[in-house]
Design a protein that fits this description.
The chain is an alpha/beta fold and about 350 residues long. The protein is about 40% helix and about 15% strand. The protein contains 12 helices and 11 strands. It has helices at about 5-15, 50-55, 70-85, 95-105, 120-130, 160-180, 195, 215-240, 265-275, 280-285, 285-295, 320-335; strands at about 35, 65, 85-90, 110-115, 140, 155, 155-160, 185-190, 245-250, 305, 310-315. The strands form 2 sheets. The chain has a 9-stranded mixed sheet with strand order 1-11-10-9-8-5-2-3-4, with helices on both faces. Helix 3 links the parallel strand 2 and strand 3 (about 85-90). The longest helix is centred in the middle third of the chain and has 22 residues, at about 160-180. It starts with 6 loop residues before the first helix and ends in an 8-residue tail after the last helix.
Amino acid sequence: KKIEMNRREFLYGTTALSLPVLAGCDNSDEPVASIDLNYPVSPFGAKSTAEEVTLGLDLTGKTAVVTGCNSGLGYETMRVLAMRGAHVIGTGRNLEKASKACSSVTGKTTPVALELSNFDSIIECADAIAKLSLPVDILVCNAGINTFSDLELVNGVERTFVVNHLGHFVLVNQLMPLIKESEESRVVHVSSKSAYVQAPAVGIDFDNLRGEGAFDYWEAYGRSKLANALFSLELSSRLEGSSISSNALHPGLVQTNIARNAPVVLRTAFDWFGGLISKTPEEGAATQVYVATNPNIKGVSGAFFEDCNAVNVSGDHHIFNKSMAERLWSVSEEMADGYLIGW
């Protein structure tokens, strides 16, 4: 098979890896994020690390759940939260992966298996966490995939959408009773700038979630990341007036293994250029750890963060589209029917 990459694949494909488009490409129409001054402005930025943004914090007595704890951003998030005193429940696709990761960090951790494409596994994970009889103070929905492959359905729904959105939708629902037991809890959704530069032009193309139309894996990833942002937005609306916050974020271009299934040319480009402009996992995890722990943003909910600050995003996009968020919630309930509890 001939290996080639057209301009569109480069523009969107690098975005799928959270990679900014390299100089020389006309990218003038891309939405641009800027700090939203309606929220507290932090002193941290793109080069801050997760350790730096938690310096001086004591999380003793806090319980955190981090999905995808065995590598990349999830591992660093677990490591730093545990180092600061939190009891971290780390999930991996199987217990072996989760246990290996949990045992390698300093602090109190508990491994739990979680396969986000399998709703029965999510129920088992939530049950295992409930048996610990602890309130959940922090839930970091970190795990995710980028398939770079042909259409694949899971129970009749496009796989990237299932893993990146629906799986966490079910998990948050199942853990909500424990989240509500906390005096002040935070749900953190790891989205991406792909949510506003890579999703279909219409946003969530509700008539194509089951593979009814053309499949584009760049757009499928963007759609799933937009779903993360919209889920966070609607969750914050439904929890308004409570002590629970819900925020989404873009971690930045990070040197993780999310590109392992990418086409050869894209992987090669990432290997060549990624190190010049990418964040380390320590830097990449900073924003989600900041959103999960910083006392200055207590009560902030429904925001979208980049580089440790809430942002506005210019141009045409849907990350703050409330009507789309409401519809996504309803459709998600239908797709996860039988696996949700009332709260």
